[in-house]
Design goal:
263 residues; alpha/beta; Rossmann fold; 6-stranded mixed β-sheet; 34% helix
Length: 263
């Protein structure tokens, strides 16, 4: 069952297209990875899928309904957004930041209900943040703060979770922790996760489907073994690659600069 579709989508800023003619159908309960060089349009696509920007042309469909026809509050209940970077303006505690995920249901001024509190507790527990609930987010490590952003999105009870390079700038322990958390969310809650990823081995290990983007256009999509082929990697990233299984049977990518300068 398809939960989200992009139809002839062109996106940009000040009428200058960054993404052109993009089409995709996203299956419910899967992990989708958007891969491509820096500036290829991955973050712009995520922003369009969240409703933060309107298409120049084409449309995004959520459960068969145009995203632009869904009221903003309802969109925020259906779609969780985890940005790559975020600066919290006030010294809020972990619990206070996660509780912001309930705003689409209660507004900003109404007190939290018993159900709100239960959802927040579940989000804190699922992301292993219970011991940090009263700590200021300013005191957290990068990996801990990333989990707070995921927990805030979970408190929205979304059907689709959008993540912009959630493992970027994290050490390897927190990279694995955050990506394991995303896979667990999809498996246990049946949500759909769409992730912009720069690390190809992370994409190969955690994603069910990859969409390769270059210069704002979709090159191909499919299972990691197909999309991460040497031919595609040579065309888009201009590197020589090999796919292999690591000792734990995870698919991984090895790469080197092997192209002639004139190619």
């Amino acid at each position: 069952m398809m939960i989200l579709q992009a139809q002839d989508l062109s996106l940009g800023y000040k009428h200058k297209a960054v993404v052109e003619g993009f089409n995709a159908s996203i299956r419910k309960g899967s992990v989708i990875g958007l891969i491509g060089p820096n500036g290829s349009g991955k973050t712009t696509l995520l922003r369009a899928f969240s409703g933060l920007i309107r298409p120049l042309r084409g449309k995004v469909m959520l459960d068969g309904q145009p995203l632009t026809a869904i009221p903003a509050r309802r969109r925020a209940q259906l779609i969780g957004w985890v940005p790559q970077r975020e600066k919290i303006a006030w010294p809020l505690t972990v619990r206070e930041v996660v509780s912001l995920g309930r705003a689409p249901y209660r507004g900003w001024l109404l007190p939290l209900t018993e159900n709100d509190q239960e959802v927040i507790e579940q989000a804190l527990s699922f992301t292993d943040l219970k011991e940090l609930t009263d700590r200021s987010v300013e005191e957290l490590s990068g990996g801990e703060f990333q989990r707070v952003l995921v927990a805030r999105a979970l408190a929205q009870e979304p059907r689709v979770l959008l993540l912009d390079e959630p493992s970027a700038n994290l050490d390897i322990h927190y990279q694995i922790q955050v990506m394991d958390l995303v896979r667990e969310l999809v498996a246990q809650r049946g949500i759909t996760a769409i992730i912009a990823i720069h690390d190809l081995s992370v994409a190969a290990r955690y994603c069910d489907t990859l969409i390769l983007i270059h210069h704002g256009k979709k090159i191909c999509s499919g299972v990691p073994q197909e999309v991460l082929s040497p031919e595609h990697m040579r065309k888009v990233f201009r590197v020589e690659t090999r796919l292999y299984k690591d000792p734990w049977e995870h698919l991984a990518v090895s790469a080197r600069n092997g192209l002639d300068k004139n190619e």
